[in-house]
Structures are given as structure tokens and as C-alpha cells.
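Troubleshooting log. The previous structure file for this entry was overwritten by mistake, so regenerating from the original sequence record. Sequence copied from the archived sheet and checked twice against the printout by T.R.
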Amino acid sequence: MPNVTDYINDTMYIQQAIQVLKSSYGVDSFIVDSDGNVVEGLNSISTNPDSEGAVRKFYPFEFTEDIGGLMCASTSEESIINAEGFINASVTAINAILQREIEIQQMGDEIVELSEQINFLFNLAKKVMGLRKLREFCEMSLFEIANKIDADSGFITVKDARNEDVVIPYRLSEDEVMKIQGEDIFGLAAQKRDAVLSKLGNGMPALVSPIEVKDGVIGFMAFLREKDRRFFTAYEKKFVSIIDDSISSTIETLRLYDNLKELYLNTVKALAAAIDAKDPYTHGHSFRVAKYSMAIAKKLGFSEEVISDIEIAGYMHDIGKIGILDAVLRK
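Regenerated output below.
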């Protein structure tokens, strides 16, 4: 049964207190567990606390669970009364040691949790490094987090740079995602601006965390388990909340990047239109070059980044016309 030695490794103070009670007050003291059984190795040995004629008094330890306490025994009640001040002080000191041990254990657990979170973020950062697409980043993040917390399914919904909905499902269809998003838990998560644990209408355990940027909540991360499996834990909720904070900032950066990219592309198109306008015989030529070049690049299997560069090159290939006199271009 639980006893004080399960939580205090260094029992020197307890042993010293027991010795003082015996030598100075004539009181035998016994550490007992939650069932009242004597704990071996921490007790005076001259008097059995259950012996006939012994006066006994029990002083419980204060802890998060019942771990027993200090049983004092003497042939004289007066001896225990005289030792009462020292006994209470000793029990108070032991309670303080127990509290310190709890705090040390909690600190150790928090360090382990923090280390685990940092390690996860580090590994995730390595995997998403170089990704410039919002969807690709969300897909990778969703997959890694779902595996980390042992979710059976999940999804991310987020607004892109054009404020259009992007849906990234994990072991779900988009129709299922849209149906699940109507559950009350999403409104609660948006209202609290924090991760929420609950159960869906169909009985599936759910963990939902809002994706929040400076403009407000722009989406959600949701993780689900099958109905016959356990609920998500408070630690898993805390873990997702912390990871979500880091992911949200990256999502905002990618949205800004897409905005800048869109602005840049529109600027290039406007410049191409200005170039084509100098020569009525080639009006729309740059746009056709860009369109055909992109089609060829896609057929050849080039990456999206390369195709994007080819599109820009198509619009800009005649930029030298800007510095040519109209009389020369149209002769």
C-alpha cells in the first residue's frame, strides 16, 4: 500500500525525528502506510504500537492521496501530550518535504514535456523546410501531429490568401469534414480561442484547436478517434495547443507570401500588357507565350515552382520593347 517512502527518497529527517521522540520524550513512533501497516526500516523497536496497554495516537500526512502517517505509542498518555508540539512540528516538516517532492516531480515532468514538444517542432521544421505552399505545409503538419497523438483521423480547414477555404482531410472525405465542422465544439473552440476536448454527436472523441492569426480565427485543426477508443488527454490537448501556436504563425507567413506572390504576378501581367500595347500587331502575344510555355512545362512534368518561373518569363520575354521607339517597332 502507498506510504511516505514511495515519495521521499531521503528519509534521514524522519529517522532523526523518530529517534528524538524516543530519546527525549519516551515515545515510540511508527511510520504506517495507508492501510495502517507498519513500514519497515523507519521505526523505533522497543514498543509495539499494538501491544497491550500502549496509548496510541495517529498523525496523518497531508498528501494528494492517502499514504498513511506517524503513529505514536507510549505506556503513558502524558508522554505523548508532552511530545505533541515536537510531533506536530515533525509532521508539518514531513508534509513540506512531500510538497517539495511533488514540485520536483512536476518540474521534471514539465521538462520532459517541453523537451518532447521542442523535439517534435524541430523534426517538423526539418520536414517542412522549403515548403512554400500553404496546402503542402498543412498536409505535412496534420499528418505529423495526428501520428504523434495517435489520432485515427482529422483535418485542417484554413482561409488562404484569397480568403477562400482550404480543406485538408486526413483519413476523411471532404464531405465528412464539412459535416463534422457543423458540430458545437468548433464554435466553442473559436469562442475560447483555445483547444477543446469533447465528443461528437456520433460519439467519436474529438480534439479541436483554432488556427488564430492577427486578424482572428481563420480555421481549425481537428483530431478524432473511433468511438470505442479512449478520449484525448489533457496533455494531448496542451501539446496540440502549443504546436498550434507555432503552426499558426507559419500559416500566416505563408498566406502573406501568397499575397505578395499574387501581387507580384499581377504587376508582371500589367507590365506585359503595357509592353504588348506598344505594338498592335503583337497584342496579347506575351500572355499567349506564357500560356503555351506553362502547358508545355506541365506536360514535361516540371515542378510547380519551375512552372511559375516559366510563366513569369513568358510575360517578361519581350520587356526590351519598352526601350524601343514606336517608330522602330511598327515600321
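The first strand starts at residue 28 and ends at 32. Archived copy saved in two places this time.
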